[in-house]
Amino acid sequence: MNNLSRRLFIKSSLLATAGITLTNGVWAAGSIDYTYYTLQQISELIRTKKVSPVEITKACLKRIALLNPKLNAFITITSEQALREAKIAEIEIKKGKWKGPLHGIPVALKDNIDTAGISTTAASKVFKNRIPAEDADVVKQLKKAGAIIIGKTNMHEFALGTTSHISYYGAVHNPWNTAFIPGGSSGGSAVAVATGMCYAAIGTDTGGSNRLPAACCGVVGFKPSFGLISTNGIIPAVQSLDHAGVFARSVEDAAIVLNDIAEKYPSHCGLNLKLSPVATQLRIGVVTNYKASDEVKSAFDTAITNFKKKGFKISSAVMPGLPEKTDFMDAELKAYHDPLLLKYDADYQPEMAKWIKNLPILDNTVYLEQKAAMEKHRSEISGKLFKDVDVLVLPTTTSAPVTIEEAKVKGAFALDDANTFPMNYFGLPAISIPCGFTATGLPLGLQIVGPRWGEQIVLDVAYMYQQSTKWHLHHPNIKFTGAV
Length: 484
Prior knowledge:
By secondary structure, the chain is an alpha/beta fold. The protein has helices spanning 3-17, 39-47, 53-71, 79-94, 137-144, 187-194, 211-217, 251-261, 294-309, 327-344, 350-357, 364-385, 404-410, 421-426, 455-469, and strands spanning 74-77, 106-110, 148-153, 200-205, 220-223, 243-248, 283-287, 313-317, 391-395, 430-437, 443-449.
């Protein structure tokens, strides 16, 4: 049995175990299974006309049709539009008008990112009929690069939680075990990438919403420096902290997407990420004041051992605490939702409505003072944190993912964001990459943090770790357990 046949046989067996039957052509374009090819690999096949964007898009749509009823990763599937865009890409590439590595690649969008003529709901009944007239800036960038928008992903309602179990459209399920949460708020985006329903996805991150789901689902989640990717046209959570971010199955793929959507990078820095193994004289600061369960700590310690074996200079570091008063964040959240609550109170998920109503009203002078303090901290933090180290490392999550039933009891923030939130406040680039599994087979993530506009060094260190561990090559068996 050759390698390709063996792979198909194994996949058929695994899917049969999960109650899914693999039939000819369901997963693949032609006779080859491209499901877990990287974006980079598929892009090269498309560029060299060895595979058609139409075939790849059809394969992704078939996979969505098969898996989404169980995982609930998508709210809206844009089948007709995606196939039209794929056909246009195919014609352009045949004529020699290849736009770059995203041309003809199926990409998903979190459903708080505006899409012209396509429903954008933020997973809330409040916006169930909301159809924007204009694309968000990040969508414009993707379309300019030739990406195929394949659908809008499910999420925690209004991006106000870390679990993705609170949604008008139902809970999102972790593909490694559907009884568990996928993390949030960008849960659907992480699930879509982890299961091969698309080759990349765009999410948002206000306190960890890109990195937490990436860790829980075993993929790469990258939140760049604050302001690198425009949030114009994205339904806000807390505007001062909101970032757009990238989900991919490899660090290289994340860099490819980032290159095409980062329109606000400082001109003096440039952004043309080309990854290569980094020099081991780089200095890694191991954060000591992170929060973690024993299981998370064990995986993190193993990751640090890996860095030491590679010859990196390791030292201890402390992540600065946040100011005692950060009420301005709640004020921004409340300012957006109070007018909606006056009209659509009954349409909010009850837990969300109660929480927002109970937020205190903040004096405008206090708001401006706290906001100014944050800006001062952001301008000073890189010089302080990265004076003696090049990057910081710490766990992404504080614990393994909880079950959906546990999340229903513990609430919207059942997955603690203590290790991720500081990077939003300080506006620092941070990536979560797979670093192991729990004893029950759920993924865990390693977080790498750099100075503001230090995307290149963060991605380079992540790339080195990825190349030496291969955790990113593990994919979910899609065992459907529990109620779905």
